[in-house]
Amino acid sequence: MRKLIILSVLLSVLIQAEGFTQERKKTPALREQVYSQLARAQQLVDAGDVDAGLRVLQEVERKQSSMNSYERAMLWNFYGYFNYGQDNVEKAIFYFNKLVEEEALPLALEQNTLFSLAQLSLGQENYDQVLQYLTRWEQLVPQEQQQKGWVLKAQTLYQQGNFPQALTAINQVIQAAVKQAQKPEENWLILQRAVYYELDQMEQVAGVLEQLVKHYNKPEYWVQLAGVYGQLGEHQKQLALMEVSYQLGYLAKESELLNLAQTYFFGDLPYQAGQVVAKGMAEGVIQPTLSNLQFLSQAWIAARETDKANEALIAAAKLSDNGELDAQRATLLLNNERYQEALSAARQALEKGQLRQPGMMHLVIGMAELNLENFNAALQAFAAAKQFDEAQQLASQWEQYAEAEQQQLESLQKLSDVIRSSS
């Protein structure tokens, strides 16, 4: 149960009433007998005897026909706070509404209650009622004191989906604060950002996020701003902001680190992409899933880090049920003149199977054997490769080349034997 503050509210209103009633219908006096009963009910409730406090209120209510409007208003005020303290918001609204329908209220009491009714109605998602209460409240409050009402109105209009008017209201609040050289409150900027987002005004979203970064410097604002820069096509700003966020330790989630790595990769910085992913995996933030390991291998291949790419492909291949990643590894190793390793990877790829272009693996085997001067093995591999459409033409060319190389080597061997025998 919320702690009730009825007596303090009552005293506050009594203190303010005199100054606020000069231009209004005179407020009747609150008699001591009524005040003492309300105070007694407050004491019982504060002591934890809610039922006894409620019985005292009911005794007062039975005499309402003999009470003046101000005394009834204070009774409804107590009931309102009592029900609010019991988490019965609908009943609290009912009694606060009875209060503002009484005549000759102190201005402060009417102002405070109308604003409370607007807030409670917002919580109940009764948006039309919120705006009605705020309209009445604005008629009682000088314009220079209406800022908090603009915020509530902006929130309500946003919830109604009336984004243009919500924007007008929240901009009014923020502009008033800036004019007075005050920092806009964080929740104002968050609401303004949300409205601009709903209106698909992404440049303005970026501007608001820049203010949130400047004034409140939270990690999520840096990350969100970088994302918006990306949507706007401002990739240099996006990358710069993400780099700073990374250095500050603001990128702590797997998705954030992968986003940074992808930004590096597509920004022609594959080595940095590989570093981010490898470090994230080492720290347990990025999971070594098949897709993440594939991306890591692509980054290392693009960065010409053969050993690291090979390790990533080996790890990824263990998680795959086909030979495609072993095939990639075979091609990588062949291109880097690591022929024995290329042979092993290509054979593993063929053994695992389900290859899109199996003929290319026979071709890789043939080229690796050829470079190792294993001509017969190379010719056998090229012959196998010729059975597949995707490798037929290349295999025929390499077969001819291998035969020529073999003949040349055999000729040289014969010549060497003749020279040796004649000496």
Which characteristics define this entry?
mainly alpha, TPR-like_helical_dom_sf, disordered N terminus, Serine Threonine Protein Phosphatase 5, Tetratricopeptide repeat, 423 residues
Question: Topology, please?
Answer:
Layout: H1 6-20, H2 32-46, H3 50-61, H4 69-85, H5 89-100, H6 107-123, H7 127-138, H8 147-160, H9 163-179, H10 186-198, H11 202-216, H12 219-231, H13 235-247, H14 254-266, H15 270-282, H16 290-302, H17 306-318, H18 324-335, H19 339-352, H20 358-371, H21 375-385, H22 392-422
Helix pairs in contact: 2-3, 2-4, 4-5, 5-6, 6-7, 7-8, 8-9, 9-10, 10-11, 11-12, 12-13, 13-14, 14-15, 15-16, 16-17, 17-18, 18-19, 18-20, 19-20, 20-21, 20-22, 21-22
Written overview of the protein:
By secondary structure, the chain is mainly alpha-helical. Among the domains are: 1-141, Alpha Horseshoe (Serine Threonine Protein Phosphatase 5, Tetratricopeptide repeat), CATH 1.25.40; 149-200; 322-423, Serine Threonine Protein Phosphatase 5, Tetratricopeptide repeat (Alpha Horseshoe), CATH 1.25.40.10. It has helices at 6-20, 32-46, 50-61, 69-85, 89-100, 107-123, 127-138, 147-160, 163-179, 186-198, 202-216, 219-231, 235-247, 254-266, 270-282, 290-302, 306-318, 324-335, 339-352, 358-371, 375-385, 392-422. Helix 8 (147-160) runs antiparallel to helix 9. It is rod-shaped. It starts with 5 loop residues before the first helix and ends with a helix. The model is unreliable at 1-22 (pLDDT under 50). This is Anaphase-promoting complex, cyclosome, subunit 3.
